[in-house]
DNA helicase IV (Micromonospora pallida), 705 residues
Amino acid sequence: MTDQTTLEQEMAAEQRHLDRVYARLAELRQSAARAEREGYRLAKVGNFGALVERDAMVFHAAQRRHLLDAEHEGLVFGRLDLRDRSVLHVGRLGVRGENAETLVVDWRAPAAAAFYQATPAQPLGVVRRRTIQSSAERVTRIEDDLLDPAAAPPEMPVVGDGALLATLSRATGRGMRDIVATIQREQDEAIRSPGSGVTIVSGGPGTGKTAVALHRAAYLLYSDRSRYAGGGILVVGPSTVFVEYIASVLPSLGEETATLHSLGSLFPGMSATRTDPPDVAAVKGSLRMRRVLERAARDAVPDGPEELRLLYRGQLLRLSRAELDTIRTRALPRGARRNEARRAGFDGIFAALWAQARKLGVPGLPEQRLFDDELVDRTEFREFLKAWWPRLHPRHVLGWLARPERLRAYAQGILSGAEIRVLTAAWRTLDRDGLTIADIALLDELDALLGQPMKPARRRRDPFQLAGGVRELSTFADRQRAERAAARERPADYRDYAHVVVDEAQDVSPMQWRMLGRRGRLASWTVVGDPAQTAWTGDPVELTRAREQALGRRKRHEFTLTTNYRNSAEIFAVAAAEIRTVHPDLPLPTAVRSTGVHPVELRVPATELAARTVEAVDALLAEVAGTVGVITPVPRRDEVACWLAHLDSPRLQVVTSLQAKGMEYDGVALVAPGEIRADPGSGVRTLYVALSRATQRLTTLDPLD
Ligand SMILES: Nc1ncnc2c1ncn2[C@@H]1O[C@H](COP(=O)(O)OP(=O)(O)OP(=O)(O)O)[C@@H](O)[C@H]1O
């Protein structure tokens, strides 16, 4: 029998199993549809119990159908032949036959763990591990590993030569893809780490930290659905570009369960995508900013009333600026929140005016309660109160910091003169350019200091409202179901997550750790990152302190990943040489894949940079089947995007060196790497990130002066 025949026979055998699974899946879909119909029939019975049952049936049937659809493609991807001659197929979800026999084991189930953990040294009862690729219900490829040759029956064939490498050579799409079929042992250990405490995953570029973090979220959901689906999982990444890239990795996480945010979108109602230069980010991210913000949150409103003058029964009552300040300060003892202490401030004003009126011997002065009522009836008095102690939104107060004289006063003795100058310059254009990502953590801190402004009660969304304003006529069970769906919609500033995943954690500043900590008080955590890729140039001690505070005393489980699956060995060699210039002894991952194609390093006259970049990007688009990323120094992004605008390819993306964090492209054109390196604080580390984004081709273009 030739090898080709063996391969064909083995593929045919897998196809038969796949056919059986998909046939069963079709039955399950039908039975889900039947359950929905049955649910509606129950409704006709009309009693309370039947309606509730109907509700549950319809809800679960719909959920099941959604899951079956979401995981349809590539449903079965693995097979284990065990020592006891039994066979297990592993897939994206568990499927049982009509006699309850197991057709597919869910990849997250304990029985599937051996698929990822077995090695020739420790076969864990597995004789042969097979990876199955399929497309549109057809088996397209199979790859075997013989893990326990001594236990293999003589007729057991072994085909293919490496599922992992085959997978890694596929073209990169706009979104990250899942790795369920080829998760490696060290990754699997991190994915299946205990649900409680803090799981910390570190490793160099391309070692699968993001992939592991997301698969871990899916694993947790499987292992304790009610806890994680109930509380929700928050996934935080550095930028919007990155969050879009990872959004579709695991459909099974579902929108109701996992909330994805960039650090710039965590504060409700605000969304920032601008980055600050490292020196500005270091000041804005420092814990010392908390003290600066505390002062601001207690200060008088800029352009507020200078004094209060009130004619009362022919007498002038007057509170000077100094008296108003004293009342405000008294109403705000340490730790009080300004928006919540508003009442106390107003009481202070009433008391001071009453005392003054008494002292002046105002004729016919009523008791204080009536005196207060008289004042409240006066429009100009109410206007004064609102102007003197308005409800403050954090964005107002951040605006005060953009006034140089105020910033100097608040930062006096906390920040150095140079730091104040850096901030002043950065915020000079706040109104024109809008917030940066680092500003969002300051807003969140201010929000904690100010407390909630009393908002007018928001109308609850009516779950029965149909388009066009027609209110649905519904039965009791419909209402219950709709109510439940509305309850699962988390409010915009939800903070009780059951699990928080922090990706690219090396770039989270101390103030950002505080912002995350406020959302994970009840959570277990997965924190993934690589210190060598950090752009943080501030105080490392502060950073550790803030991070430890956010994570609390929870038990730590640490994992290190050591293989780079992204870059070809030739590309990673260039990135490695760069980081070695500042960290000569840093342990680096090993890149497993060699393409024989070396990166192209071009030095071009500055005047030709635009033309040569266009040429290089054109060439990359022709050479790779997947995406091409153009990475630029931050100030050059828009200029470079203009050069390339005419190319108009959905495979092309232009990003700054900071937005490139966590991203991956098949081809990368890196414009002006020297300018990225030139930043004295984090230049080399940022360049290391940029150089390690490509899977197949890398071209660098350095302009010569
Ligand atoms: N076991 C695996 N099988 C197949 N592909 C994998 C595996 N592990 C990682 N990859 C692929 O390697 C690439 C890099 O993974 P990922 O982005 O998770 O790495 P990372 O450690 O977060 O990288 P970085 O720190 O550079 O952002 C992705 O394309 C991912 O799909």
Q: What stands out?
A: The CA atoms of residues 263 and 572 lie 28 Å apart.
